[in-house]
Specification:
CATH superfamily of the largest domain: Medium-chain alcohol dehydrogenases, catalytic domain
Helix content: 25-40%
Largest sheet: 7 strands, mixed
Shape: globular
CATH architecture of the largest domain: Alpha-Beta Complex
Bound molecules: NADP nicotinamide-adenine-dinucleotide phosphate
Number of strands: 15
Strand content: 25-35%
Structural class: alpha/beta
CATH class of the largest domain: Alpha Beta
CATH topology of the largest domain: Quinone Oxidoreductase, Chain A, domain 1
Radius of gyration: 19 Å
Order of helices and strands: EEEHEEEEHHEHEEEHEHEHHEHE
Mean pLDDT: 97
Distance between the termini: 13 Å
Low-confidence stretches: none
Length: 306
Amino acid sequence: MLALVAAPDREEKVELREVAEPEARPDELLIEVDSISLNRGEVNRLALAADGWRPGWDVAGVVLEPARDGSGPPAGARVVGLSNFGGWSRKLAIPSRQVAVIPEGLSFAVAATLPVAGVTALRLLRFGGLLLKRRVLITGASGGVGRIAIQLACRAGAVVTGIVGSAERGAGLQELGAAEVVVGIENASGEFHLILDAAGGDSLAQSLKLVGQHGTLAAYGNSAREQTTFLVNDFYLKDARLVGFFMLGDMVQHPVGEDLAGLLALVAAGRLDPQLALEASWRDAASALRALRERRVAGKAVLHLD
Ligand SMILES: NC(=O)c1ccc[n+]([C@@H]2O[C@H](COP(=O)([O-])OP(=O)(O)OC[C@H]3O[C@@H](n4cnc5c(N)ncnc54)[C@H](OP(=O)(O)O)[C@@H]3O)[C@@H](O)[C@H]2O)c1
């Protein structure tokens, strides 16, 4: 079967190649993948991956064979799920606890946007507890996680500030509910109950200054790929906390199926727009990956396995 595989010598370090068919464990479904979504973390990992490594976290498709232990949806069900490896392939074996059934009327492509970006946004916001009338700062607000986090935070009653790299990248974020969109975190002011930061580097240092008394700063990435230097006095005097979050580590103890189902229901009800901004064939994976790497995607990028 075909799969997108790490190929360090090829454009965007990926190519379609023949690989072995997957074998499902008793708790896994075998699915035929229809759509996959791309994440910045995959772009970053591909940059360093050895030849033959198999990327792919977000998948949506049809169940070919249900799990032999009886868990999960039956053959023929339309599902979306989170795989920790190798999802960019025609067929995939995936634990039944990591999938949810796609509601009628939602496409595979829209569903595929949700596992990494949606569940990350949801779980990060939970660090803030009750968000009603609380100020929430979201860096990388123009990206896949950021756009979903803005909407979920606003649904919970938060007053959201989104940080973007340019005014152009901020287009449309107020329509998603952001109370203010600020170009550059150095221009943000006041104190925040909850900050979600994946830009890393200086953005994390600035976030440590902006987090409020008893507030929470959730660090979940380092898009800048830089070290952070900060004066600890800016932080500890506020009794605030800095927490880390890593989705792929968390999914073992806390499978994503239930959270995914909740997000799908919100999308189906028209209460969450996962901001599908780019669709392409997986044969054009390199150009889609390049667009994401160059920060030209205003939301999520999805590939169809045609
Ligand atoms: N810990 C986890 O489990 C987890 C889960 C999901 C994602 N992540 C991480 O979270 C980050 C966001 O993920 P995503 O899928 O939302 O990515 P994305 O769609 O590419 O969005 C990232 C946003 O970050 C902003 N950014 C700021 N500095 C950047 C830099 N130096 N390089 C690139 N982008 C920069 C960009 O906005 P502007 O162009 O407006 O500046 C971009 O829109 C990534 O670092 C990813 O690896 C971590």
